[in-house]
């Protein structure tokens, strides 16, 4: 059976309740982040634009050289904050916070034009500029985030007000966009609406929203180029485009012809997410084929070991193959979050660890590092090396990342499972209870585990009556020596593996127990030697987690640490000041910086001494004392 | 005898005629660069501002955020070009080029105000802004370069017109600057006038110019701060200073209190050069002490192995200690040229290889790389690693570097020798004939050598009658196993070394032969392990030359090359396509990029195969095919 014949439904967030590792993170979002997001959005003045009860928004903001201002997408910040609140309310009811969200939703309802249009900036600050510059103005992007918020808020609270507002807006768009007389045959410079419309279609059952999403995807990159014609219509010279190339927004050619991951990283990931959704919904192999090529392009030539992507701050995106600078890595939190989105959607046509392993890697490292343990501060860019000057922000001029990582954390349960007609896939492990609907009847899966600190996972199934179906459990590629048993009977993994999942098809009965053991040993990761920045260096991973060295544990001059090729025995320890995270200690050598002498250069290499190295999970760095941090450590090299 | 009791006079450029290595470079300047500089200056429109016969310069140029425009220092570009032409005329008469220089000098004479003021920008384009913004406007900087040009042109041609113009300007300055009523108690934001006034004093014998130079040096960094008061007077807010700190122009504190090399690299080097000149002229130990501290600060914590300095493009200058990124190195050609200036002036109080070794290192590497073999193209910034995108320019928006390296190359003979009352110092080796005046009588030194390709140097002395004096020959610190003989008799180096020079004090007679052998073996250079960018890497030098790997010789992926700790036997070869430069070949290992596999990361390091590495001198890179370049190669590391 080919995977591509199956369609895996996404799991609704309220259907999975997490505990353990992710439970703590979700508590931080519920207890701190959700409210902070709203506070900071309000402090930034977002409600001034939104609230029509204020006669004059009183906002005079200079347009930047790229053709807009970050304030133009305030709606997206509010939307992602509402989405985060929605998920948090499901976990922890909070009437006060809910009331604040309801107030904002009321404002959107009041703001909405009779024709269905909603955008606080282009109704209140620049009303004459509506739909004049799709390339730069983020109008459909904002709409997309509001749709995502509407779906989440509806699923979490049952309240449909925002969902109705956004359905009206989407209906308006259906009339506005197309090839007919007076319609706009265009698409947004910042993809997002595409995946949002799929969510809207799924929650409403309305295929028309899928069709609009498909229209945006199919139109993108066609010639004559929409952005060129639009610029001319708007009196702008297309040659003055500050990004210089439509690769920036992945509109340089039709999406099915794209083979290389280019441009702005978040835009790329959001587009691929929308494409993957459509590939699943329409069983569109032309999209799937394009996506698989792009997937390999990204993950075999352009991705940090953390699942960080987009090395350059200049275009917030991609540069050359194998160009992965560590100290200046942009690797925006949003981009790793969006890689998780894409990866999860690549599982829509069947479980495959080619996608799920990377989803997990990006989630635990490049994405999660964006949030502090307290849930109160945030990373925007995520270098893999710091001299001690990179720290978590309270807020950011372009506050896209804080609500993005918050909504991912708050909804992470939905990424753990996939459900098809006759199959449940477990993509991610973690303490959780999932109440899933499988072909009309309910199946509850209770995962008991201390994953990712420990590799032992026990899953108990609860179902009213015995049922024949397949349970597919991801066996990560890194999990050498993994073992699996069902009701105490050992499973021969070799016999049941399909695309990296142990697929156990049988009649399942209530109380069935699945036990999985994924050995977590510290393992070295070497980069393809074409990655010049990692030459002679090694990164260390344990399970899905990238580990790093911090100055607070190891002193400064971390580049003087040399890790032996054959890893010595390691010790793990529980870090009380990192909420019981598992640290790893191992003996290493260290170049002697004390007795080097005066000269900057000399003909003898540095002497070495034995030292102890303590590694902590990368996503937890800069949660204690400020200081140096390093992922790629010097690796011992031995001649042939 | 302490070195500091002696004063070493600079040697005038026409007194030394070079051949061999430097002769070829000077021929390139004479045959190509000198004229190109003038052509490009004219094309840029510089004469429009300068030539008062044009009623209207017709220049409307927007002021940049830093408070000026690069066009404000057009005079300095013309001046350095004239200086280069002056040196080139001495080597190769060129009536056409001389006539063009004379024309420009005539324009300066016509431009000069009755009061003596000369500046094409502030007389012709912004006459109302004269002396209103010394911090940013480069007025005294331009004056300094014109003085240097005037001195050079007078020494090379005997023509005094520009010298007279600049003496009048300097006399005007003496009245304009000071603490008296109506005087300006300030100094230039870009140092240069200080060292130029010393040159003027030496050529005219007028101590008043020294005094003005000393005034500028002594005033710098005093409180209340001149730049702050000037900004307020000029209606500018001192807080808006784009460079944020007066460290940028080394005016953050009085110069004698400065201990750390900070800010804009060229400004720093020019200031230290002026300070060193004054230290020599006034035998000012307070200046010398400050300079020695700054010298160590620069050379033991902030200098590339190439003698490149100033790693950051942001401030064209210094950042943190041990921060020496290779691929993004700014290391402006001008900064290494200026380091040569400073180093040579540190020899004014006696020969010392602590300064002369670095002078040679910066000259042959960080500076000389700025000029192509043809003399027709230029490097501005000088990374030590390139992915193949860094290439020589035909010209630059801020064309400071081309004439700077050109004038240094064309005058390099003057840096080879130093003369005191009873001592001749040979700082640099190279085929040359120097006609020196030693306490009233003439001594000619004829160096016969193929240095730096070969370490054998023979020096023949010519003098009318026998004379007692010291001949001091630098024995570079790297020259392990150096040997020296005089008239065939071996000298015991251990017995004659003073501050890194073999000091041979005796009665010298006509025809005396000095033979020096400086073994040139390829030697590894390791950086202090605090330099994170060089951790696990090695650079290779031969004599004063840094070598590098280029793609044209070695294929791409240069970071996959691994150099063994114990260097195997090397072969040298003559590179016909690099004007007979000496290349070095040695067996190395190379990580296998072909059979790595699909994954970007894996748990096994790359396999290695044996390979041959060809290294060429760094200063010659990008003279053949474009491609990757690397100085710091992966170094084999072995456990303790």
TrEMBL record, chains A, B:
Family matches, as InterPro entries: 6-hairpin_glycosidase_sf, Beta-AFase-like, Beta-AFase-like_GH127_C, Beta-AFase-like_GH127_cat, Beta-AFase-like_GH127_middle
Q: Which SUPFAM superfamilies match?
A: Six-hairpin glycosidases (SSF48208)
Q: Does the keyword Hydrolase apply?
A: no
- What are the UniProt keywords, alphabetically? Plasmid
Concerning Pfam families, the annotation shows: Beta-AFase-like_GH127_cat, Glyco_hydro127C, Glyco_hydro127M
| Coiled-coil residue windows | none
GO process annotations (BP): carbohydrate metabolic process
Identify the PANTHER family for this entry: DUF1680 DOMAIN PROTEIN (AFU_ORTHOLOGUE AFUA_1G08910)
Tell me the protein's name: Cytoplasmic protein
């Amino acid at each position: 059976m080919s995977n591509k014949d199956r369609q895996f439904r996404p799991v609704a967030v309220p259907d999975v309740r997490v505990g353990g590792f992710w439970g703590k993170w979700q508590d931080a979002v519920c207890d701190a982040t959700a409210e902070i997001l709203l506070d900071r959005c309000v402090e930034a003045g977002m409600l001034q634009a939104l609230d029509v009860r204020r006669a004059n928004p009183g906002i005079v903001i200079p347009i930047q050289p790229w053709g807009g201002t970050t304030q133009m997408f305030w709606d997206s910040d509010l939307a992602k904050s509402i989405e985060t609140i929605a998920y948090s309310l499901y976990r922890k009811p909070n009437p006060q916070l809910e009331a604040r969200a309801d107030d904002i939703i009321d404002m959107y309802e009041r703001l909405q034009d009779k024709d269905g249009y909603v955008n606080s900036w282009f109704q209140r600050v620049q009303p004459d500029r509506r739909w004049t510059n799709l390339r730069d103005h983020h109008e459909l992007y904002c709409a997309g985030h509001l749709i995502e918020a509407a779906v989440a808020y509806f699923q979490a609270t049952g309240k449909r007000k925002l969902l109705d507002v956004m359905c009206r807006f989407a209906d308006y768009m259906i009339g506005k966009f197309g090839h007919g007389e007076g319609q706009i045959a265009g698409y947004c410079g910042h993809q997002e609406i595409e995946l949002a419309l799929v969510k809207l279609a799924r929650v409403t059952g309305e295929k028309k929203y899928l069709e609009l999403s498909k229209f945006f995807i199919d139109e993108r990159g066609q010639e004559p180029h929409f952005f060129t014609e639009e610029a001319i219509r708007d009196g702008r010279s297309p040659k003055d485009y500050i990004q210089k190339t439509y690769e920036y927004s992945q509109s340089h050619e039709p999406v099915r012809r794209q083979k290389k991951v280019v441009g702005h990283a978040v835009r790329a990931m959001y587009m691929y997410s929308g494409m993957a959704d459509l590939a699943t919904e329409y069983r569109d192999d032309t999209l799937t084929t394009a996506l698989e090529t792009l997937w390999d392009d990204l993950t075999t030539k352009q991705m940090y070991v953390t699942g960080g992507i987009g090395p350059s701050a200049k275009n917030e995106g991609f540069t050359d193959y194998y160009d992965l600078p560590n100290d200046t890595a942009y690797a925006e939190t949003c981009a790793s979050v969006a890689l998780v989105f894409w990866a999860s959607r690549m599982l829509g046509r069947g479980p495959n660890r080619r996608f799920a392993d990377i989803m997990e890697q990006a989630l635990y490292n490049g994405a999660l590092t964006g949030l502090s343990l307290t849930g109160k501060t945030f990373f925007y860019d995520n270098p893999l090396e710091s001299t001690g000057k990179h720290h978590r922000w309270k807020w950011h001029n372009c506050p896209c990342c804080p609500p993005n990582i918050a909504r991912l954390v708050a909804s992470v349960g939905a990424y753990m499972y996939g459900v098809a007609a006759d199959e449940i896939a477990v993509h991610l492990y973690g303490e959780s209870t999932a109440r899933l609907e499988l072909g009309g009847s309910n199946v509850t899966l209770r995962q008991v585990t201390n994953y990712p600190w420990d590799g032992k996972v026990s899953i108990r199934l609860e179902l009213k009556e015995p049922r024949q179906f397949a349970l597919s459990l991801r066996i990560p590629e890194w999990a050498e020596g993994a073992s699996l048993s069902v009701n105490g009977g050992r499973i021969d993994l070799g016999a049941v593996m399909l695309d990296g999942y142990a697929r156990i098809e049988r009649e399942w009965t209530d109380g069935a127990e699945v036990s999985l053991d994924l050995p977590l040993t510290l393992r070295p990761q070497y980069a393809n030697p074409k990655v010049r920045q990692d030459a002679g260096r090694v990164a260390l991973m344990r399970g899905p987690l990238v580990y790093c060295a911090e100055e607070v544990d190891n002193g400064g001059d971390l580049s003087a640490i040399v890790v032996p090729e054959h890893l010595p025995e390691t010790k793990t320890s529980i870090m009380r000041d990192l909420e019981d995270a598992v640290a790893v200690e191992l003996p290493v050598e260290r170049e002697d910086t004390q007795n080097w002498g005066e000269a900057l250069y000399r003909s003898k290499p540095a002497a070495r001494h034995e030292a102890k190295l303590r590694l902590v999970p990368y996503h937890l760095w800069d949660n204690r004392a400020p200081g140096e941090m390093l992922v790629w450590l010097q690796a011992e090299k031995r001649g042939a």
